[in-house]
Structures are given as C-alpha cells and as structure tokens.
Amino acid sequence: MASSTEDPTKEQDAEEVDSEDLSITPEMLIKHPLQNRWAMWFFKSDKARDWCDNLRLVTTFDTVEDFWALYNHIQKASKLPSGCDYSVFKDGIQPKWEDDQNKRGGRWLINLNKQQRHTDLDNFWLETLLCLIGEAFDEQSDDICGAVVSIRTKGDKLGLWTRDCNRPDSIMKIGKTLKERLKIPPKIPLGYQAHTDAIVKTGSTVKNRYQV
C-alpha cells in the first residue's frame, strides 16, 4: 500500500524556487543615472510679491527613476491655474533671463491656443523633458539650459532655452530636433527669440532671430 504522505524534499524544492522568484537582484536596486543633474522649479504669479519671491525650487533629480517619480507625483501642466510655470533647468541655472548661463541666450518658443491645452500641451511638455534629460540634442546638448511651460489665459507657451543666441548652427539643429520630436507639422513655423530682444521689446511681440 502506497504512503499518503508527500515527499518532503519536493516541498522543500518548491519553497526554494518561490524564494528565488521573489528575491531582488542587485540590478533591480541600481538606478539609471542621467548625464546631468536637473532642477524643477514652480512659479505662481502673485502681483503683491516680487517676481523672484514667486519662484521656488521644487527638487533636483539625476536618475531616470527619480524623474518619473517626480513627474507622476505632480499635477499635469494642463491642470495648473493661469499664471503658473513649471521649469526644468540644469542644476545651478535659475529659470530667469538674468542668470549668467541664460543672459546671452534665448529660447525656441511654441505658442499654443486655448484648445491645445487639452490636446497637445501635456504631450509637448513631457516630450520636451525627455529630450532634455535624454540628451536628445547630441553634441548640441551642452548648449541647452532648460525648458519652461507657462500657463496663461490668452494661450499657453513652451520655451526651450539655450545659453548663446549667437550660435546659429547649434540653435538651428536644436530647433529642428525639437520640432521633429514634438511632431509639429512642417508648415507651422517655430521661432527663436533672444532674451535681450525680449527684455527691450517695445511692442507685444518679439522678432524671431531664427526660424525652422
């Protein structure tokens, strides 16, 4: 007559397999470093306060995992109140014209209409951030300072800032890459403005230095 008890060694083998499946390998604990450390800033307009007092540093990050933890934790740009900005810049560069790394530069500027806040804004902003942290601009990546998304009642804006407005070859390559990554149709022009031109502007618009 066969014994009704199961082989204890089989049960032990099964436990060993289960424990191996649940074990965490060292590779799973290693984060993927970015080439640069980045800082995220938040601006909320309050006319009773100085402009600089309305700008605050949220956090810095230098790994892929920390970026996604931050991005998934904060509100989407399209949900921010009018008058608010998100900025992501290389650590050590503040998102303002007066910063030493910015004052000789400019920005590729994308103007969005009110409807695009619901259709394109969040996708454009995320893709721009992925271009930044992924060094998508190749040898021109050193010229990148950061990016700003601005939520405004009349229409939102997205700007990609570079450090030197007198580097036409680099600026044009950056603009073409950005336009391709955002899948902006060729017939829609993208303009680049120098910060110095924006500071001294006399009208409501700033003349583009470059265009793609």
Verbal overview:
By secondary structure, the chain is an alpha+beta fold. Helix content is 31%, strand content 25%. It has helices at residues 8-22, 26-29, 64-73, 116-119, 121-133, 168-181, 195-199, and strands spanning 33-44, 55-63, 84-90, 106-111, 144-150, 157-162, 191-194, 210-211. Strands 2-1-3-5-6-4-7-8 form an 8-stranded antiparallel sheet. It is globular and about 65 Å long.
Question: What's the short version?
Answer:
Helices cover 31% and strands 25% of the residues. The protein has seven helices and eight strands. It starts with 7 loop residues before the first helix and ends with a strand.
End-to-end Cα distance, whole Å, is: 86 Å
How confident overall, as mean pLDDT? 89
The largest sheet is: 8 strands, antiparallel
Q: Could you give the order of strands across the largest sheet?
A: 2-1-3-5-6-4-7-8
Shape, please? globular
Low-confidence region ranges? 12-20
What fraction of residues sit in β-strands? 25-35%
- Strand tally is 8
Rg of Cα set: 24 Å
Helix content: 25-40%
Enumerate how many helices there are, as a single number.
7
Structural class: alpha+beta
> What order do the SSEs take from the amino end to the carboxyl end, as H and E?
HHEEHEEHHEEHEHE
